[in-house]
């Protein structure tokens, strides 16, 4: 069985704030409020889809294929709440940041 963090629960409040600024900016696309999105991420429906992404990729990041999946990333939010599995990608933390064009600091 794969062990994995729940992506939004483990995010810092600063990171969540940035995510929801983007979501607010594109509200007409998302068609979901912040509260609805957070509730969806706690739903059994989302957990099943998230688990399916982990199983599909055998728990390995789709970006580097070396690290374990930490985040399930939406390629599009146009079907948020009713996404197709090909619209979801499993990423490690580094690749997830790269997908958002965030700089990863070297330790």
Descriptive overview:
With 107 residues, this protein is mainly alpha-helical. A two-stranded antiparallel sheet has the order 1-2. The N and C termini lie far apart (30 Å). It has one domain. The N terminus is likely disordered. The longest helix is centred in the N-terminal third of the chain and has 13 residues.
Number of strands: 2
Q: Please, how many helices?
A: 5
Instruction: Count the domains.
Output: 1
What's the N-to-C terminus distance? 30 Å
Which range does the strand content fall in? 5-15%
Element order, helices and strands? Answer: HHHHEEH
Structural class: mainly alpha
Q: Give unreliable regions as ranges.
A: 1-6, 24-29
In helices, the fraction of residues equals 40-55%
Question: Order of strands side by side in the largest beta sheet?
Answer: 1-2
Largest sheet: 2 strands, antiparallel
Provide the gyration radius in Å.
Answer: 14 Å
User: What is the mean pLDDT?
Assistant: 78
| Shape designation | globular
Describe the secondary-structure layout:
Blueprint (H helix, E strand, L loop, with lengths): L12 H13 L1 H4 L3 H8 L2 H13 L14 E4 L13 E4 L1 H7 L8
Antiparallel strand pairs: 1-2
């Amino acid at each position: 069985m794969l062990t994995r963090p729940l992506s939004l629960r483990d995010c810092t409040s600063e990171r969540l704030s940035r995510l929801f600024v983007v979501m607010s900016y594109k509200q007409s696309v998302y068609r979901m409020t912040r509260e609805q999105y957070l509730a969806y991420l706690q739903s059994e429906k989302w957990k099943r889809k998230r688990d399916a992404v982990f199983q599909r990729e055998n728990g390995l990041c789709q970006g580097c294929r070396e690290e374990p999946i930490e985040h399930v990333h939406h390629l599009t939010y146009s079907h948020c709440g009713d996404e197709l599995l090909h619209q979801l990608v499993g990423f490690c933390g580094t690749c997830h940041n790269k997908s958002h064009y965030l700089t990863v600091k070297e330790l």
